[in-house]
């Protein structure tokens, strides 16, 4: 098949399944077929030549829409490609569409998108997780091999777990955030979904690295991730924080994750106990820091320079207030207000400063734990994919979906979710591996060996031919 | 918690229904995050931002080389209202 034929098949699949799954907010046929033709006529060797990739709709793509799942950016088109997108294009990848997401990446179910909920391809009455639910489903439903998402508190790993695919959150500063619409800048990081760890490794290898346009990217060498994927994992030390396997964890998840520990043991890994005493405060720290940063970052949406503007406002501040009231959805408003509250005069020290101190303790937990192990294993999500509507009226219950994932964002370490089993209802379960700073190679190696030795052996009900 | 006052600070014009919805929700989230008060953090250095040690050590200065800017036409392209090279807004005073 030519690149053009392959890309057209991907586009056909995306269009065919989107009515059922709503994973794409835009399917870019003209753009993608033009790119395919360009690549066909370009004989230069490129690592992702002709590979179709889906991109979360909060990552800027020149001349294509970037809505962040929000009405306030309805029809917004960026002037430039995000660095990660540019690097993918340079490597020969073809962006085929932009994916649905919780509005401004705020959510764990995709229900806060202004453009409708994404459906889980394993069971359409259930959520795909979030916030990168569209990117997860684009991969899980077999439309693309890999996609870009973004993580602030688990928005790649959690949907990967709920959709039965691989989801990688790299170290803070590994992939440039230039062109990623900011939610909470000290936590945000572009993440990757793959059908397999190899797919994630290929995309990470291309997108990682220092970028002059993002001063938080670090000058750290990018290894050849594919080269170490098949390394023997014998003797690798995997830490298990037993205290986190207690209250709130679904029994089926506990069972499947315990089984993944046994499986790693059978592959020669050494299982050691670790303690993360401050991890349980992660959600509390997160909802102070993330909302504080969001209230500041989202101040830019004011109806002046881009996006939606409310009509019938007679003076400037009224225009700001009406634009933001009509343009933002409930979850975004709730978080902007929470952030405004914790930063407001008289409360700043009690909330924001306190959270920054506990964040330091969470990070120290990990630094200490990684003195004794190569990776830490936990569940990714405390439950399997929940029903659409089940948690949408209870924000706090929704926030607790990220209990196992947020602390990695607070500390800045990388993490990966790997499928490790199915529930009695046939829904996927993920096991999470967390690594020391810059150790994505270790995580991808551990994940790759696991999926080869213990494949899930099942596909979602809705899957592209 | 005075949700209406917070909304004003955040430039949000919220309805009475929203005040009724958000007030208990935000109160329960704030009550949840207050569990941090059980920790003694007296002598802990706060973590400012998310940088790793390697990120801290990275020289982030860019070469001082002129490059093309966005330009007025592009900068105004996505504006809801633009006239004669300016963003147009309702009256300020």
Please, could you describe this protein's structure?
- The complex is a heterodimer of chains A (465) and B (93).
- By secondary structure, chain A is α/β, with parallel strands linked by helices.
- Chain A has one domain: Amidase signature (AS) domain (Amidase signature (AS) enzymes, Alpha-Beta Complex), CATH 3.90.1300.
- Chain A is built from 14 helices and eleven strands.
- In chain A, strands 1-3-2-4-6-5-10-11-9-7-8 form an eleven-stranded mixed β-sheet, with helices on both faces.
- In chain A, β2, α3 and β3 form a beta-alpha-beta unit.
- The longest helix of chain A has 22 residues.
- The radius of gyration of chain A is 21 Å and the shape is globular.
- The two termini of chain A are 15 Å apart.
- The mean pLDDT of chain A is 97.
- Chain B is mainly α and 93 residues long.
- Chain B has a domain of 37 residues.
- A two-stranded antiparallel ribbon of chain B has the order 1-2.
- In chain B, β1 and β2 form a beta hairpin.
List keywords for this structure.
heterodimer, A: 465 residues, alpha/beta, Amidase signature (AS) enzymes, eleven-stranded mixed sheet, 14 helices, 37% helix, B: 93 residues, mainly alpha, two-stranded antiparallel sheet, 4 helices, 2 strands
Q: What is the β-strand count of chain A?
A: 11
- How many structural domains can be distinguished in the coordinates of chain A? 1
Looking at the structure, the CATH topology of chain A is: Amidase signature (AS) enzymes
DSSP strand (E) fraction of chain B?
under 5%
Secondary structure: helix percent of chain A: 25-40%
Count the DSSP helices of chain A: 14
Strand order of the largest sheet of chain B: 1-2
Q: Uncertain segments of chain B of ≥5 residues (pLDDT<50)?
A: none
CATH superfamily of chain A: Amidase signature (AS) domain
Q: Using CB atoms under 8 Å apart, which protein chain pair has the greatest interface?
A: A-B, 75 and 58 residues
Strand order of the largest sheet of chain A: 1-3-2-4-6-5-10-11-9-7-8
Q: In this structure, how is the largest beta sheet of chain B organized?
A: 2 strands, antiparallel
The H/E string of chain B reads HHHHEE
- CATH top level class name of chain A: Alpha Beta
The overall pLDDT average of chain B reads: 95
The helix/strand series of chain A, from N terminus to C terminus, equals HEHEHEHEHEEHEHEHHHHEHHEEH
* Main beta sheet of chain A: 11 strands, mixed
Helix count from the secondary structure assignment of chain B: 4
Helix content of chain B: 25-40%
């Amino acid at each position: 098949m030519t690149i053009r034929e392959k890309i057209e098949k991907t586009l056909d699949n995306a269009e065919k399944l989107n009515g059922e799954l709503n994973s794409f907010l835009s399917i870019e046929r003209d753009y993608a077929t033009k790119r395919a033709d360009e690549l066909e006529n370009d004989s230069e060797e490129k690592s992702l030549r002709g590979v179709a990739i889906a991109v979360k709709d909060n990552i800027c793509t020149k001349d294509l829409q970037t809505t962040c799942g929000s009405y306030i950016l309805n029809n917004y088109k960026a002037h430039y490609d995000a660095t990660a997108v540019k690097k993918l294009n340079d490597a020969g990848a073809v962006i085929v569409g932009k994916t649905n997401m919780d509005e401004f990446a705020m959510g764990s179910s995709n229900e806060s998108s202004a453009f409708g909920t994404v459906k889980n391809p394993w069971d359409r009455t259930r959520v795909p997780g979030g916030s990168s639910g569209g990117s997860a489903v684009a991969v899980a439903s077999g439309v693309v091999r890999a996609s870009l998402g973004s993580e602030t508190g688990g928005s790649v790993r959690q949907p990967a777990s709920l959709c039965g695919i691989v989801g990688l959150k790299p170290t803070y500063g590994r992939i440039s955030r230039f062109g990623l619409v900011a939610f909470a800048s000290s936590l945000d990081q572009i993440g990757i979904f793959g059908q397999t760890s190899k797919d994630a490794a290929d995309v990470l290898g291309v997108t990682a690295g220092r970028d002059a346009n993002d001063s938080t990217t670090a000058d750290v060498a990018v290894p050849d991730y594919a080269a170490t994927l098949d390394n023997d994992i014998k003797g690798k030390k995997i830490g298990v924080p037993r205290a986190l396997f207690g209250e709130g964890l679904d029994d089926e998840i506990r069972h499947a994750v315990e089984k993944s520990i046994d499986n790693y043991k059978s592959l020669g890994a050494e299982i050691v106990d670790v303690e993360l005493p401050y991890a349980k405060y992660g959600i509390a720290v997160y909802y102070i820091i993330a909302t504080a940063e969001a209230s500041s970052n989202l101040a830019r949406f004011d109806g002046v320079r881009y996006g939606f503007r409310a009509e019938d406002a007679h003076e400037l501040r009224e225009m700001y207030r009406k634009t933001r009231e009509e343009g933002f959805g409930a979850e975004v408003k709730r978080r902007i207000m929470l952030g405004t509250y914790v930063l407001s005069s008289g409360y700043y020290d009690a909330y924001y400063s306190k959270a920054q101190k506990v964040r330091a303790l969470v990070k120290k937990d990990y630094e200490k734990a990684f003195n004794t192990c190569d990776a830490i294993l936990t569940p990714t999500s405390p439950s399997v994919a929940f029903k659409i509507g089940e948690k949408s009226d209870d924000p706090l219950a929704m926030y607790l979906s990220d209990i196992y994932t947020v602390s990695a964002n607070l500390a800045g370490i990388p993490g990966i979710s790997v499928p490790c089993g199915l529930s009695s209802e046939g829904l996927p379960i993920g096991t999470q591996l967390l690594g020391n700073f810059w150790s994505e190679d270790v995580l991808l190696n551990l994940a790759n060996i696991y999926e080869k030795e213990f494949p899930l052996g099942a596909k979602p009900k809705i899957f592209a031919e | 918690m005075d949700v209406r006052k917070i909304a004003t600070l955040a430039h949000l014009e919220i309805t009475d229904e929203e005040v009724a919805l958000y007030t208990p929700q935000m109160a329960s989230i704030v009550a949840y995050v207050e569990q941090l008060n059980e920790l003694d953090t007296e002598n802990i250095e706060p973590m400012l931002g998310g940088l790793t040690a390697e990120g801290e050590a990275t020289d982030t200065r860019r070469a001082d080389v002129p490059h093309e800017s966005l330009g007025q036409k592009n900068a105004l392209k996505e504006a809801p209202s633009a006239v004669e090279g300016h963003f147009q807004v309702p009256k300020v005073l």
